[in-house]
Amino acid sequence: MEVVRPPLWITDERGAPRLRGVHCTGCGADLFPPQEYGCIRCGAYGERLEERDLPTEGTVLSFAEVHVHQSHPVPFTLADVELDAGPIVRAALAPGSKPHIGLRAHGVVVADEGDARFEFALSDEVQQ
Length: 128
Prior knowledge:
- The chain is 0% helix and 49% strand.
- With 128 residues, it is an all-beta fold.
- The radius of gyration is 16 Å and the shape is globular.
């Protein structure tokens, strides 16, 4: 039996990506990726976890350049971005990015041979 998982991101009416997450009504935490096991902050579960689309703006916490991968062209850079909404998300950076810790990032959708993927683009703004 094949498990069908909903997409982790969608685009809004302007074409900007939003991440599919959940909001805990028990403590107010926003969580990504969406899950039903319980809030990582307070343990609430079930109806206390509501679906919520999260904005993709945040701050680079760490990054690593990948030089060996089975299915993706290398090199590419992964970054951990702490979203302004709270969760930390790991995703690829746009090709050619020159990351450093504290840079602001925002999600972008990239079309690639008929497929689309989510990644982060960097701005020159540094989070203080």
